[in-house]
From TrEMBL:
This is Membrane c-type cytochrome cy. The keyword Transport applies. PANTHER family: CYTOCHROME C. Residues 74-173 form the Cytochrome c domain.
Length: 173
């Protein structure tokens, strides 16, 4: 049922298919790649758009808005939605500690002052009070703000989300 001729046909078919793909890639490179093939070197663009300032379009960064301005217009109800990221480790009830300390009244509270929670000590070294600015820095990148902290969360990258969350936490007293 399976003889030498069948095996020869299968191998020949696979080799033929591979050859078609290789030749097709070579032809496409000549047609669309300008005939440069796999050669190294500078490839000249077919059409370039002159830029007056000579700078990169991607290099222009927006001016950073100070956190105080973002926090002044923060929405505490939007911060309640951001809180969902935090509630797996933290509680809002006073004195209820989980993996992380209770965040009841955290805005304006002394750093490392939640009773019954064992802090790592890294936080006390970087701040005295959880002001909105200190919370912003910590929530952006906890391990960068306080190296050695127990908090393993990667942080909130969006400044508006951080401001909204801090505004929400400020309402929990």
């Amino acid at each position: 049922m399976f003889d030498t001729m069948t095996l020869t046909k299968v191998v020949g078919g696979l080799c033929g298919t591979l050859l078609v793909f290789l030749l097709g890639g070579w032809a496409a490179d000549i047609i669309y790649g300008g005939g440069h093939g796999g050669h190294h070197g500078e490839v000249e663009q077919a059409y370039s758009i002159p830029v007056e300032d000579g700078g990169d379009a991607g290099a222009a960064e927006e001016e950073a808005v100070p956190f105080e301005e973002i926090y002044a217009s923060a929405d505490a109800s939007a911060g309640e939605g951001v809180w969902r990221n935090c509630r797996s480790c933290h509680a809002l009830e006073e004195g209820v500690n989980g993996t992380g300390p209770s965040l009841h009244g955290v805005v304006g509270r002394a750093v490392g002052a939640e009773a019954g929670y064992s802090y790592s000590g890294a936080l006390v070294a970087v701040a005295d009070v959880w002001s909105p600015e200190n919370l912003n820095g910590f929530l952006e990148a906890p391990r960068d703000y306080a190296p050695g902290t127990k908090m393993t969360y990667n942080g909130l990258k969006d400044a508006e989300d951080r401001a909204n969350l801090i505004a929400y936490l400020d309402t929990i007293n």
